[in-house]
Structures are given as structure tokens and as C-alpha cells.
Amino acid sequence: MIFPFKKTDLPTADDALKGRAERPHRVGDRHLVTGNPIESDVPDGFEVVVVGLGCFWGEEKTFWELPGVWSTSVGYAGGFTPHPTYEEVCSGRTGHAEVVRVVFDPAVLPFSEVLRTFWENHDPTQGMRQGNDRGSQYRSVLFTTTDEQQAAAEESRERYQERMTAAGYGKITTQIAPLGDYYYAEEYHQQYLVKNPFGYCPLHATGVTYG
What is the reported pTM? Predict the structure, then answer.
């Protein structure tokens, strides 16, 4: 018997949508808040981390407001389908999560502060959802770009688990892994809450502090 696919399931590489060889949409040139390029080489001395905390509209704003952030973008990561569309990601058949790519200056914004912002702005114990947003694209993920980030992120998860447990929450389900492919989302998603100031994308913070 063939069972229907559920959006809270992760597909295998064989089951995922096949995607395409090139990006099918525009991204935009300049960040509407920082003024810096959305797509460019990372400035010398800067770092990149990619985080998923649920709906990426509101979470991008959370990170672009941090001092030391050079640029942000929203996109898709953690799955199998090359150059997916938003509709494909929402189907659950790509394996990707909605994510925010953060380019930051560690001399101004230490990675520990990036981690604090990540943990404190969502509920990392909910598995394949955030609040009423259900589906594998809303899962909690943190994709690193250096060995030092990876070690710090794993240590922070252990530390935050202690606080979550003390507060009555369950096991943290956040995936922490080196970044694979990152695919930029469509232009209308980039800096969405600047283009749509009355747009609504709720945060699901637990109120448990980190550090």
C-alpha cells in the first residue's frame, strides 16, 4: 500500500523533487536595510551562518537588526532539490528548510551573540513545526561554515538544553550541521517586512534565556 506523503515527513534523495539546473527567479541586488549586496563575496574577516527558526520573513528582520550584520537573505537549505521554488519547498517534497543567511562581522557581533539570538527567538523543541506553522520547512536548523562555529553551536545546544529542561520543555530537535547548498528565495521574499510593513509572521520564542 502506498501511503500519502505528509509535509512533516522528510523525503529521501530518491523521493525528492528533481529541481532544475539554474535558479528560476530573481533575487534582487541590494539589501533594503543595510544597502549592501544580497549576493556577493563575503568581505574579508566576516563570517556566514545559515539559520532556520520557522517562517523566514520575520526571522530575517530579527537578524538584520543586530549590530555587526552586513547583509541577510532568505532562502532554502538542508534538502535535496536543486534551485527549488517556494511552492516546491512548501510541498515538503524538497527536504529544505526556510532559512536566513547571515553575513556578519565577528569583531562587532560575536558568534555567541548570534547563537543567543537564534535560541531565544523560537522554540527548538517542536520538531517539524513552529507554532501553527506545520511542515518540514519550518524545522529548527543551524548550518555552520567553519569548524569553530560547529563546535560552538553544538556546545550551545547542550547548554541551552539544560535551561529548556529546567523550564519544563522537552528535547531540542535542532539540526546542527555544516552548510551544504544554499538556494536564494524569490525576490519578493527578500526583506519581506520592509516591502510589507504590516505583514505578519509570528515568532514563537519560549522566554527561556540563553547564556
Answer: 0.96
